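User: My instructor asked us to take a sequence, write out its structure as tokens, and then describe one feature of it. I'm not sure where to start. Here is the sequence I was given:
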Amino acid sequence: MSTTETTTARARSADTRKKQIVTEFRRSEILLAATKVFGAKGFDGTRMDDIAAEAGMAKATVYVYFRSKDEIYEEAVEQALAELVELTEQHVKAAQDFAGRVNAFIKVRLSYWKEKQALYRVISTVNRETLSRKRSLKWQKVVVDYLAAMFAEAAVQGEIEPQPSFEAAAWAVMDMIRGINDRRIVHYERPSEEEGRFMTEFILKALGYRRP
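Assistant: Let's start with the prediction itself. The structure tokens for your sequence are:
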């Protein structure tokens, strides 16, 4: 490749990267704006015009990056879930034993959705629809598999009683956490620390935890 061709290729690569950065930035701005609007107006009450106005863009610009309000909602939720997964892994890995890992898992999920209660309220409302409920179950299944694997590893290590499958236990934990978060929507709430301690002890007993 000649010097001229090399320079041209580098220029094209730089231009492509610049476009990617702009696209990522724009999409991030739109998702942030949409999360605020969804929280304030709910999913049904939100229009693309509202999202565009909050993002400080023309509606046509929003459509360049997202095809519909539903697509924006889905990516906003998936972005929040990815953030939650990362936080969960950080705290779980820092725990010293199985009891600590269970407590970390619960506390992170309670505190995260408490901070993002507006978005959680929208998710809870949208998930009542059959199509969205199936999508929600798909999102939850990823976490259930993670939790079931944690339980299985603890059983191998002799920390809890072995079971043929820990999937049902993992779903039960997720249902308990969702119940607490749902109650918070109507302002029924015990302190997070208290909820976390109770749930942890309840789950440890159910799994036959063998304290060291």
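For the description part of your assignment, you could build on this observation: The chain has nine helices and no strands. Try explaining in your own words what that tells you about the chain.
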